[in-house]
Amino acid sequence: MLCLTFEVGENRYAIDANEIIEVVPLVNFTTFPKAPSYFAGRFNYRGEIVPVLDLKDLMMSFQTKMYLSTRIIVVKYETDGEIHQLGLLGEKVMDIIRIRDDELQDPGLITEETRYLGRLINLKSGVVQLITVKELIPPFVRESLFRDVKED
Amino acid sequence: MAKIKNKCWNEIGVFGDKSCESLNEYLHCKYCPVYTNAAKEFFEREVPPEFINSWTLDITRRKETIEKGNLSVTIFRLGDELLAVLTDAIVVAVAVKPVHFVPFRTNRTFRGLVNLDGELLLCYSLENLLGISRNGRETVEENEDYAVYKRMIAVKGANEKLVFEVDEVVGVTKISSDSMTELPATAKKADEIFSQGIFHLNDKSVALLDEHRVCESFRSTLKFQ
């Protein structure tokens, strides 16, 4: 499995490359008023409005640093059988790694709030944890987020 | 941005006195993780706002996808005709070399021998095989925009390599096998037996030659009568 790695805080995470549409540089966002703070905003991605999640805010309640290595990972987000586009703001989006399925280990502690955290892999450079894109947005937010998009 | 303190590659690495022990393992600093990580440090700094503005604009544009095929073909011109062969079948395209006459063998289609990098190859006339007249655009002066050079193309068929001369090598392009059209059944031109199909390039139709059939017919012109 080919995975894109990035960092949130000090930890490294990975997303299956199959779920990724494109990695794009930072852009200006239009913010969602009164939305949970982990919504960085939305942006015009090649003609379509795509919401962006700030992964650092979602996981550790800090805003992502707007560095050159911070990039938007545009992923396919499937809900109700429809595929939407979702941007994920990650730090140090730099590397692609290849993971064998038998190298993956069970994550241990996963709370109801962190259901998006997947299995772990032990690399020389440290532990990398897989992220399940579908679980990143809580179900009740998911519904309202993409319902608006559909009504357009 | 954290300033890079340890620029070891300039001191003990390949840009310095090469005394670093890691060089035994990595051969060059560019394969060493220290160097790679230092390069990544470069990205650990604030983005200038004008960068973000220009990126925002870039990302709004739709991606232009170009339909590219999987067949690489080399296109060349003979007289007024555009022809192509699979790039895989081409050994080399070179400037025109002298053709050595072979007594009792040289004829209209077989021109003689050509020395190609020390290898003697049989040289044929493709225009004669296909019945193409090269009288049309032979002069270089006609094209003022760019220079046109005659070339010799060495092609490998099933068993042998051979050479023929063309008026111009137009270039290499990729086509998809779907974009090729079959030859019209009514067309009974001489070159149709040598073509695999026709494709379009900038509104001009190009015939893709079957190098095996071309080589075969070239050979058959050399048989003892």
Task: Describe the protein in words.
The complex is a heterodimer of chains A (152) and B (225). With 152 residues, chain A is mainly beta. Chain A has a single domain (2-151), classed as Beta Barrel (OB fold (Dihydrolipoamide Acetyltransferase, E2P)), CATH 2.40.50. Chain A is 12% helix and 47% strand. Chain A has helices at 55-60, 139-151; strands at 2-8, 11-16, 20-25, 39-45, 48-54, 71-79, 82-98, 117-123, 126-131. In chain A, strands 1, 2, 3, 4, 5, 6, 7, 8 and 9 form a 9-stranded mixed sheet that branches. Chain A starts with a strand and ends with a helix. The mean pLDDT of chain A is 88. Chain B is an alpha+beta fold and 225 residues long. Chain B has 2 domains: 8-60, no CATH class; 71-220, CheA-289, Domain 4 (OB fold (Dihydrolipoamide Acetyltransferase, E2P)), CATH 2.40.50. Chain B contains 6 helices and 11 strands. Chain B has helices spanning 8-11, 22-26, 33-41, 49-60, 126-130, 211-220; strands spanning 71-78, 81-86, 90-95, 99-100, 110-116, 119-124, 151-156, 161-166, 168-175, 195-201, 204-209. In chain B, the strands form 2 sheets. Chain B has a 6-stranded mixed sheet. In chain B, strands 9-1-2-11-10 form a 5-stranded mixed sheet. The longest helix of chain B is centred in the N-terminal third of the chain and has 12 residues, at 49-60. The radius of gyration of chain B is 27 Å and the shape is elongated. Chain B starts with 7 loop residues before the first helix and ends in a 5-residue tail after the last helix. The mean pLDDT of chain B is 82. Chains A and B meet through strand 4 of A and helix 4 of B.
